[in-house]
Amino acid sequence: MDEMFIQCKHTAVVIGSMVIRKYCDPKSVYTPKDIQTDMLSEHRVNLSYMQLWRVKEKALQFLRGNPADSYTKLPKYFYILEETYPGSVVKLKKTADECFLYTFVALCTSISGWQHCRPVIVVDGTFLKSAYRGIMLTASTMDAAGTILPLAYAVVDSENDESWKWFFEQFKQAYGERPSMCVVSYRNESILKATSIVYPSMTHYSCMWHIWTNIRSKFKKGHLQLHELYFATARSYTLDEFNEKRWSRVHATVNRTWTMTSNIAESLNAVTKDARELPIFDLLEYMRTLLERWTNEKLLKAKGTFTFLGSKFNKELENNRTLSQKLRVRASTDHIHIVLDGVKRYIVCLENKKCSYGQFQLEELPCAHALAALRHRNETYENYCSPYYTRESLLRTYEIPVNPLPDESKWNVPQHILDEVVNPPTRDKRQPGRPQKERYKTYDEIKSKKYKVSCGNCGGEGHNKISCKNAPKKK
Questions:
Q1: 206 has which bridge partners?
Q2: C-beta of residue 410 within 8 angstroms of C-beta of residue 338
Q3: Alpha-carbon distance 337 to 258, whole Å?
Q4: Which of 191, 295, 391, 421 has a Cα-to-Cα distance from 28 of 20 to 30 A?
Q5: What is the pLDDT of residue 12?
């Protein structure tokens, strides 16, 4: 018997079943090298790297199943979503041969909370790293606390005209159209075309201020001539895109206040970085649980807030109040005041909520000059702040909770939903080997100079004042 057991070999299936718990969280990092260390210390088993790689693949297969089977779960999953969250918009589009093409999810919590947020939509797309790849499109906005509120998410084949047009059509069905509504995104021709078709009256803003700053710096240094100023990038930008109304907040036709870039969409992509390796069923469930957790945390934080404004805007107001202490005010009329800041003079009209400095009407929050005028009149600031910044709006944004879903074994789904067929996409699967983790960078990003620390004493790069060795020694 001893001789027979000595000849038994450890298999990837057995060891993979032992390390399943290590991969329950998509953010957990448990490499084949970690498996080798644990197996050697706990069970005195030494494995090669290829064996360890197969162990990891088996563990992930036990936990997540076959990626192709994940598409067959979508009909019953969407049915449970609509039953659990009434008022949600869930769409699934298939090809003629019953293959998966697009999917769209907008939960009722986001649809209800959207009415209490500024109508500024930030959209972006990021690539998936699962077996069948694809692109995940997201739309988000900023709530009264200055944090991210995911509005909708979708999975499509690629970022093309048809996919973005379908995405905005479903978004319009879920959220409708509001006055002064605008969309902010990084430069994408498909988004421009889709918004012009689905939302003809909506304004689209491109995040081009960093490109314009780079071109302007080259022009000042003499690297560009005047006639080359608008044609200085490697990619083709039209003169209409360089119009200041498309990227400048001051000259914009719609006031988008604090939203200058698509950074909140990039932050959402960073949160879902590890989840983008999951099959589509697990990816959609991860997004739902993320919204569930964020809604609960933000609602508890809002209930613990006892200021009139949300945390971000209340902090900004306190900074403006500190700056207003050194200003002098001279009243001209009941509502018009002249604010003196040293040798500079600013005119504040409290009736129209405007200041000649421009910050008051742009951010819809009393600036330092407006606060000085309000202090001169012994008046509070509550009536001069945007209602989208208040604690009451924050509470209404998250008043509908995202309740947890029941266990999959307890789902009560009609038979016609279970009989619906959804095949995997017809596009090529991911090639074998190590999958791509990072996106391909553009030429401008590769060639751009990285920021270097410069010294304030000698002007050299690579060190600061503390570590400077060129500074003259003190006598």
A1: 185
A2: no
A3: 26
A4: 295
A5: 80
124 half-sphere exposure, CB direction, 13 A CA radius:
21
21 vs 391, residue with greater confidence: 391
Contacts of 474 (CB under 8 A, 6+ apart): none
Residue 428 to residues 4, 132, 157, 246, 435: CA-CA distances in angstroms?
45, 7, 11, 38, 14
Pairing of strands 328-331, 336-341: antiparallel
Cα dihedral 73, 74, 75, 78, rounded to 10, equals 120
Beta bridge partners of 85: none
More reliable by pLDDT, 125 or 16:
125
Angle between helix axes 280-303 and 74-84 (nearest 10 degrees) is 20
Please report the sign of the dihedral spanned by the C-alpha atoms of residue 310, residue 315, residue 317, residue 318. positive
pLDDT of residue 464: 80
| Residues 417, 415: Cα–Cα separation, whole Å | 5
Largest CA distance in the chain: 104
CB atoms within 10 A of CB 21: 11
Distance between CA atoms of residues 297 and 398, nearest Å = 10
Whether residue 139 contacts residue 117, with contact meaning beta carbons closer than 8 Å, is answered with no
- In angstroms, how far is CA 293 from the centroid of its own chain? 16
What are the CA-CA distances from residue 361 to residues 256, 280, 287, 348 (Å)? 11, 44, 36, 10
DSSP helix/strand/coil, 358: coil
What phi-psi label fits residue 221: left (phi over 0), alpha (psi between -120 and 50 degrees) or beta? alpha
Q: To the nearest whole number, what is the mean pLDDT of the chain?
A: 82
CA atoms within 13 A on the CB side of 107: 28
Res 163: pLDDT: 93
HSE-CB of 319 using CA atoms within 13 angstroms: 7
Burial classification of residue 107, based on how many CB atoms lie within 10 Å of its CB (0-12 exposed, 13-18 middle, 19 or more buried) = buried
For residue 287, count other CB atoms closer than 10 A to its CB.
Answer: 22
Predicted local confidence at residue 299, as pLDDT:
92
3-class DSSP state of 461 = strand
Q: Two tokens at 322?
A: 């500190």
